[in-house]
Design a protein that fits this description.
- Helices cover about 55% and strands about 0% of the residues of chain A.
- By secondary structure, chain A is mostly helical.
- Chain A folds into 3 domains: about 20-50 and about 230-285, no CATH class; about 55-225, no CATH class; about 285-324.
- The longest helix of chain A is centred in the N-terminal third of the chain and has 23 residues, at about 25-45.
- The radius of gyration of chain A is 30 Å and the shape is elongated.
- Chain A starts with 17 loop residues before the first strand and ends with a helix.
- Chain B is mainly α and about 240 residues long.
- Chain B has a domain at about 50-210: Cytochrome Bc1 Complex, Chain C.
- Chain B is built from 9 helices and 1 strand; from the N terminus they run H-H-E-H-H-H-H-H-H-H.
- Chain B has helices at about 20-35, 35-40, 55-75, 80-85, 85-115, 125-145, 150-165, 180-205, 220-225; one strand spanning about 45.
- In chain B, helix 3 (about 55-75) runs antiparallel to helix 5 (about 85-115).
- Chain B is elongated, with a radius of gyration of 24 Å.
- The chains are: A mainly alpha (about 325), B mainly alpha (about 240).
- The interface between A and B is large, with 114 and 119 residues.
- Strand 1 of chain A pairs antiparallel with strand 1 of chain B.
């Protein structure tokens, strides 16, 4: 409510002829129409609800992918392990928006140590056989370079094994890695790993960061998403499971991921966020942007919207001219 | 039965609005001056409002009410209810489709207002609050998808974290944290969206509905004649910024 007097050059709506109008009646009718439309759409189409993937269902459906992911988490080569902020300090992993390193600037606020959080701690907290306890001790005593050599060798061997099946891996120097990941697979298949990663020693829990990151590091979740056309290169950000409209309003944000230079850039997320922030600011500030604010006058859409008004004005002009 | 000794209502001194003192009086004076009852709840409208495009504003508000009510019913039973109850599944369907309708109506409303250049005549703040409402709605819908507790939530969270992390937002707004997202979805963002919507509607009522592009008002018949029937782009009224 400005203190300045009304000095608008646009005429006051009150100066124009009026017609009866019932605001409350219009709103009530709109509310009833929308409620009925919603009730009908919900009755006919319902809503999608595909069950979530659990570590148990993943490990049972695709044990090879689970094991390969667990080895990567243990060796520090998974997507999360090499992510950078906000999960860890991996150098040169953070995206940049030109010279701006906003991801790095925000810092590591959700620290994740994939080897300990996803593999070693769950194993250490579960009642284990002497063999697993010995494997944990060997792992802990080994230098980092030795640990990485074991996980790399085992990861390579898994990739060469038929179907990635741990049972068909060729012999080699993998240290305690096979024992650890086999036991972790067993924990996951029993459902115990879901509980351990979610509860994290607490009773109440609402933060699913760790189990979701573990799931996202595997290829199983992605394969299910691809089958539902949810992949980033499938306009997936605006889709949802089944034939539902999803978040259609994210079409522009999703569009940028489909084209170069964004889709081939290592900084795609930051660049697209920066671009969308700029475009969003532009939408908010349309009234102040020369050129853009003139588009309505240049186009003839307003002639359609106010066709009755313009028609009456034209009639008035014709009447005036014929009177002359 | 009034006591004969007491002053009757007719005898009560008339309230001198301009003489009201204190913060309360000042707020009331300004509120009534800005939005007198006939502006707040009008029973007439300018005759130039003869288009179906005007319906989409009220449809958007109506949809928002349905979104809030259906979301409220889901909140009564908790976020897991709709997975295990047929009634809950239907209410979740109501919530989903009312959101789809809300966003659809709002986008049509937004484009309509764009082509009307509805920011003219000191209505820029009305446009700005409406556009911010649009983005607040996107955020609210997005967090809704995150708290469905199903495969969609898992996948959307896993994908969205990369965009948010890339600009530092994810360090504070963790889409993988269900509890945090639930609070944003059912408390913080609806509160912000509600405030913005009320502000937006009050601004619409305060400024009135923007007149047609090129209109100068019946009071100036000469100018009205001069600007009537534009054959292409209408000439802006004097001082009308376009």
């Amino acid at each position: 409510m400005s203190r300045r007097p009304e000095t608008s050059p646009v005429p006051d709506p009150a100066d124009f002829p009026t017609r009866p109008y019932d605001l409350v009646k219009e709103f009530t009718i709109a509310l009833v129409v929308v409620a009925l439309l919603t009730a009908g759409l919900a009755a006919v189409f319902s809503s999608p609800d595909d069950k979530p993937v659990t570590l148990a269902s993943w490990s049972r459906a695709d044990g090879a992918d689970f094991t390969a992911t667990a080895v990567a988490e243990l060796g520090g080569t998974s997507g999360t392990a090499e992510y950078g902020p906000p999960y860890n300090h991996t150098s040169d992993a953070a995206q940049k928006l030109g010279p701006l390193g906003l991801q790095s600037a925000a810092g590591v606020r959700i620290p994740i140590d994939t080897a300990n959080d996803f593999v070693l701690r769950p194993l250490a907290k579960a009642p284990e056989s002497p063999g697993v306890r010995a494997a944990l001790a060997i792992w802990s005593a080994a230098p980092a370079s030795r640990q990485q050599a074991w996980t790399k060798a085992y990861s390579d061997a898994l990739a060469k094994a038929p179907g990635g099946d741990p049972a068909k891996v060729a012999g080699g120097d993998y240290g305690p890695v096979p024992v650890l990941t086999t036991r972790l697979l067993g924990l996951a298949r029993s459902g115990a790993l879901d509980g351990q990663l979610q509860a994290e020693g607490k009773f109440y829990q609402t933060d699913y960061t760790r189990p979701l990151l573990f799931l996202s590091d595997g290829s199983y979740l992605e394969s299910l998403a691809q089958a539902q056309h949810l992949g980033g290169d499938q306009w997936g950000m605006m889709n949802e499971t089944g034939n539902y409209p999803g978040q259609a309003w994210l079409w522009l944000y999703t569009f940028w991921y489909q084209i170069d230079p964004f889709k081939s850039s290592g900084n795609a997320d930051a660049l697209i966020w920066g671009l969308m922030a700029l475009l969003s600011l532009g939408l908010v500030l349309v009234p102040f942007i020369p050129g853009v604010r003139s588009v309505p006058r240049w186009t003839r859409v307003h002639r359609l919207i106010w066709r009755s008004y313009y028609r009456e004005q034209e009639a008035a002009v014709r009447a005036r001219q014929s009177g002359d | 039965m009034s006591d004969p000794g007491e002053p009757s209502a007719a005898d009560a001194p008339q309230r001198n609005e301009s003489a009201s003192v204190g913060w309360t009086g000042a707020v009331r004076r300004r509120a009534v001056a800005a939005l007198p009852p006939d502006k707040l709840l009008p029973d007439t409208q300018p005759a130039y409002m003869a288009s179906w495009i005007y319906v989409f504003g009220v449809l958007t508000v109506a949809s928002l009410i349905v979104v809030l009510v259906t979301g409220g019913v889901l909140a009564l039973e908790g976020p897991a209810w709709w997975h295990v109850s047929a009634t809950g599944k239907y209410v979740n369907g109501l919530h989903l489709w009312s959101v789809e309708l809300f966003m659809f109506f709002m986008v049509i409303h937004l484009w309509g207002k764009f082509f009307m250049a509805a920011w003219r005549g000191r209505r820029a703040l009305t446009w700005v609050t409406g556009a911010v409402c649009f983005f607040a709605s996107i955020g609210t819908a997005f967090t809704g998808y995150l708290v469905q507790q199903n495969f969609d939530s898992q996948w959307i969270a896993g994908q969205a974290k990369d965009g948010l992390n890339s600009v530092g937002i994810g360090a504070f707004f963790n889409v993988l944290d269900f509890g945090q997202m639930l609070m944003w979805h059912i408390v913080l963002l609806p509160f912000v969206l509600g405030l913005l919507t009320v502000w937006h509607i009050l601004l619409v009522r305060r400024r009135g509905i923007v007149p047609p592009i090129g209109a100068t008002g019946p009071a100036d018949s000469t100018a009205a004649t001069a600007t009537a029937a534009p054959t292409s782009a209408p000439t802006p009224a004097p001082g009308e910024v376009l």
